[in-house]
Amino acid sequence: MARTGWTVSHSKAFWARRALFLASSTMLGGAVIGTVSATAAPVVSIATKSFLISPQPLANALTTFGMQSGWQISVPDTLTAKLSSPGVSGSFAPDVALSHLLAGTGLTYQVSGSHSVIIKKASANITLGPVRVGGTVAHQDPTGPGVGYFAENTMAGTKTDTPIIEIPNSIYVVTKQQMVDQQAQKLTEALRYSPGIYAEPQGTELTGAASGSGIRQRGFITSQYVDGIMSNSYTAGETAFLDRIEVVNGPASVMYGQVNPGGMIGTSLKKPTATPLHDVSVGFGNWGRYEATFDISDKITKTGNLRYRVAAIGVTQGAQTEYVHYKRLGVLPSLTWDIDPKTSLTLVGGYIYTPFSGTTATEYPLIGTLIPGPEGRVSRRTFYGDPKFNHNSAQDAMFEYQFRHEFNKYITFNQSFRYERSQDHDQYMPFWGRVSPTEFVRVPWDSNGINRTIGLDTKLTGHIATGPVSQIWVVGSDFRQIKSYSNYSMGDNDVINIYHPVYDLDMTCIKNPWSCNVEKYPSWTNYFQEGVYFQDQIKWKGLSILLGGRQDWFNSHTVGATRDYNTDGSTTTIIDSHSHMAQSAFTWRAGLVYKLSFGLAPYFSYATSFIPQTTRNWRGNPFSPLTGKQYEAGLKYQVPGSSILLTAAAFHINENHFLITDPDHPNYSADAGRVASKGVELSANANITKDLRLTASYTYDSVRYAKSNLTQAVIDAATGETGDKVSERGKYVQSVPRNMMSAFFDYTVPQSFVKGFGINWGIRYTGFTYADAANSFKVPAYVLFDVGAHYDFGQVFPALKGLRSQIAISNLTNRYYITSCGRNDCYLGQGRRVYGNLSYSW
C-alpha cells in the first residue's frame, strides 16, 4: 500500500492552549477561560489526495478507495451486501472521501491503526452530527446540526458545500447543541450570543410571532431565509424544528437577491437523517409553561434509500405580563428518497396552529420604565391593553421540496421550491402619546392578515480541475412571489393610567365595526422578484478567490387606504392609494482568502446589495431602492486538528436611501439619506475538549446618518416637550448598540468526579442605544447572566441509557432592563426565566 502523507502534528493540548490564549486575550479582556489537560492524545493531520470513484456497489467502491488512498479497509461482506455508494470525485483528505463514499448507507468507520479502518454500522445515538474518529472529524453536513459548538462547512453565502474558513466574509453558525444547552425557545433567543446581531430590540415577548421580527444585523433590519429561500416563517421561528441557524453578516444579494447590507439569517429545517433518531421530551417552566416534543427519524426501506422524519411540538404558557397567553401545536414531517446514487428528492411539510400567540404586550410607557414616574417604575406584569380586547392567533402551513441530480462528476443540478401560507388576527392597543406623567393615550387596533409566499431556486454547479487550479462554479435563477392581504380597523382613543389601569373599553363598535363609524383600512399587495446569478470559486494551493454577480428584476402592485397623522395627532386624512412599481439592479462581489499551513486565513472582500421599495412617501412619490456596499477584511484561524474556530472582522458599510419614520407624518417613511455602519467583530466557536465547549463574541458597531437632509426635533424624555430641530447628519441610528459582548461555556464534569453531570453559564452585555434620530436621550446598557445544568442518567444507571435532564435559567438576577425606546414608549426585556426539560433518546 502507498503512503498517505500523514504527519503527526503538535498535541491537541498545545493547539488548544494557544487558541484559548488568543481568544481570552483578544475577546474577553484577558479573562482566564480554563486549562486543558496536557495528557490529551496527539492529533493526526491528513494531507489531501485526488479521488475518482464513480457511483457503484459499495464493496467495489471501498476496494477502489483502498487503492487510491493507501488505507487498509476491513469490512464484513454482510454489511456491504446490496448497498451502493454515491462515489466521490476531487481532492479530499482520505477521511472526508471515505465519508462521501459511505453517505446514505447507514455505515460509519473507526480508525484501527495509522492507515487502517474498520467499517461498521452507525450508532443509533449519533444525533448531533458526525463523531470524532482518530483525532479528526469526518466531513460535516453543511446544513446539518454541527458537532458541539463547531460547524466546519456551510452552504450559506455561497450555495456550495464550502469550509467556513475558505469564505471571505463573516459567517457564524448556531449549532443544534448550542440551542439545546441554552434551551432557546425561539429564533431570537437562539441568536443572543451571535456577533453582529441585536436579536431583541423589540423586547422579548414576541413569543409566537413570525421568526424574523425586529432583528438587527450590523445595524440594519435583517432578512430570513429558510432552506435557502426567503420566508418570514412561523415554522422556522420554532427551534424545535431547526437543525442549525446561520448568521451571514454583510451583503448577500449576489446569491439571494433582495437582502439588506447588514446580512441575512439562514435556518435549516429538520430532515431525515442517515442514522436512526428517536427523541421525546417534556418540559416545564415559570409563567405556567408546559411543553412536549418528539423527533423521530428512521429508514423505510431496508437499504435506507427511503427515509422519513417527523418532529412535533405542543406548548402552553403564560407570560411575565398579565392576560397574555401562548399556545401552539406544530408538526414538521419530511421524506428523503435516494432515487439512485446520483439522484435524490426531499419533501418537507409543516403546519403550526397558534390560537394564542402572545404578541400583544410589547409596548410599555416611557414614563414609568426608562424614567421613573411619580410612583416609580411600572411592573413587568402590568398589561396596557384590555382583557376584553386581547385576541391574537396565527396559522401557518408550508411545503417544500429539494431535488438533486448529478449528471456526471463535473455538473450537478439542484432545485428548491417552497410554498408557505400564513394567516393572523391580532387585537392590540399601541400608545399614541402622553396626557400627563401618569396617563397615556391608546388606540384600539384590530388587524387581520393573509400572506402567501412562493419561492423557487434552480442552479447548476460545476467542478473543474486544471492542473493545480480547481474551480467550483454556480449559475442559477430564482424567483419569489408574495401575495398579501391586510385589513385593520381603529377604535376611538382611550386613556389609561400607567400605575392603576382600569379595563373598561367600550366594545360596541370594535366588535361590530361595520355598524359604527370606525375607520377601516384594507390593502392588497402583489410582489414579484426574479434574478439570475453566477459565482466562481477558484482555488490554487492555499489561495481561494470568490467572484459573483447577479441581475434582479422586481415589480409590485399595491391597492389600499392609509391614514396620515400629524405629529400632534390632532388631525387625520384618509388617503387611497393605487401604485405599481418596477425596479432592477445589478449586484456583485469579489473576495479572496489565503489559508496558511498552520490554520490562519486572512481575507478581504467587497460586496454590494439591493433592496427594492414598495411604499411611497406622504406626498405619494415612490422611494428609490436601497443600495449598499461593504468592504470587509479579517482573519480566521482554525486550530489544526481541532474543532476550534476563531474569527476577527472589520467592516465598513454604506447604504443609500435608508428609510426611517417620517418625523412630520408618522404613518409614512422618509428617506434619511446615506447611513454608514463601521465596526469590528470577534468570535470563537470551540469544542475545546470533549467536556468543554465555548461560544464567545464581541461586536463594535458605529451606525450613523452619514448624509441626510432631514431634521428632527429634540424631545425632553421627562416632559415629552419638543425643542429645536436638529440635523440628523452625524447622529447615531436609533436602537443600535455600539458595543455588545457575550460568552457561553458548557462543561461536563469528568466522569471520575460526578458521572454524567454538567453545568453551563453565560454573560451578555448590550451597550446603550439612542431612542430617536435626533439622539434626544439614551436607553442604558445592561448585563445579563444565564446559567444551567444537565445530567445524563445513563452514565451511572445503564438501564436509563438515553435519559437526560436539563435546567436553564436566563437573566439569573432578574434584572429589569429596557431593550429599546421610542419617543413615548419602550420595550422591556424578559425577567428571570426558568425552564426544565426531561428527554429520552433511543
Automatic annotation (TrEMBL):
Main location: membrane
A GO biological process held by the record: siderophore transport
Keywords: Cell outer membrane, Ion transport, Iron, Iron transport, Membrane, Receptor, Signal, TonB box, Transmembrane, Transmembrane beta strand, Transport
InterPro entries cross-referenced by the UniProt entry: Beta-barrel_TonB, Beta-barrel_TonB_sf, Plug_dom, Plug_dom_sf, Secretin/TonB_short_N, TonB-dep_rcpt-like, TonB_sidphr_rcpt
Matches recorded under SUPFAM superfamilies: Porins
Record localization: Cell outer membrane
Any one Gene Ontology cellular component term annotated for this protein: cell outer membrane
Origin superkingdom: Bacteria
GO MF annotation, one: signaling receptor activity
Positions of the Secretin/TonB short N-terminal domain: 71-122
Gene3D superfamilies with a match to the protein in the record: 3.55.50.30, TonB-dependent receptor, beta-barrel domain, TonB-dependent receptor, plug domain
Topology versus the membrane: Multi-pass membrane protein
Similarity comment text for this entry: Belongs to the TonB-dependent receptor family.
Protein name per UniProt: TonB-dependent siderophore receptor
Organism encoding this protein: Acetobacter syzygii
